[in-house]
Design a protein that fits this description.
single chain; Cytochrome Bc1 Complex, Chain D, domain 2; rod-shaped
Length: about 180
């Protein structure tokens, strides 16, 4: 006898595991049902695992920690020194006031500045902060109100005004230390 252990039919053709239509139907059904039960079992296993510590995962602090920014960019030491009126003028005002563009009074032109100086410092500052005619509002930009005020005083004084330069507001910590 040969070493071939495969079953054969009387005519010598090999016989497999599935020999009847009933066996074929059962094999096809099991081929679909067994994987589905396997997937359902894996899902149940994963979702019903040990939940200890998961309550901490859903607190607002934990969620905010997971979605926080990856990093931030900061130039300098975070503290910006207050700019002088001349510095603000060079950066913000000189484009129009140096050349007298769009009706802006030229820097140092006493005749053009005289009617504006008569309105007073507060009116000039208000015009600078809120804008006037073609001049865009300067408030809320790169410079704070005190720095814009210093630029107004710098320009007005160059045209003959005698305005006093505004002082920087005291820091909250400095006011508390001064009162003790």
């Amino acid at each position: 006898m040969s070493d071939n252990h495969q079953a054969t039919v009387d005519d010598g053709a090999p016989v497999g595991l599935i020999t009847t239509p009933k066996q074929l139907l059962i094999a096809v059904l099991l081929a679909f049902v067994v994987p589905i039960f396997g997937i359902v079992g894996i899902v149940r296993y994963v979702t019903s695992g040990d939940k200890s510590g998961s309550a901490d995962m859903h607190t607002e602090a934990a969620v905010m920690a997971r979605i926080q920014k990856v990093g931030s960019v900061q130039f300098g030491n975070g503290q910006r020194s207050a700019k002088t009126g001349e510095e603000v003028f060079k950066v913000q005002c000189s484009a129009c006031h140096s050349a007298g563009l769009v009706g802006a009074p030229k820097f140092g032109d006493a005749a053009a500045w005289a009617p504006r100086i008569k309105t007073g410092y507060e009116a000039l500052l208000n015009s600078a902060l809120k804008g006037k005619n073609a001049m865009a509002p300067q408030g809320g930009g790169a410079f704070d109100t005190t720095e814009i005020g210093r630029a107004v005083v710098y320009m007005a004084n160059a045209a003959g005004a005698k305005f006093e330069e505004p002082k920087a507001p005291a820091a909250p910590g400095a006011a508390a230390a001064a009162s003790k």
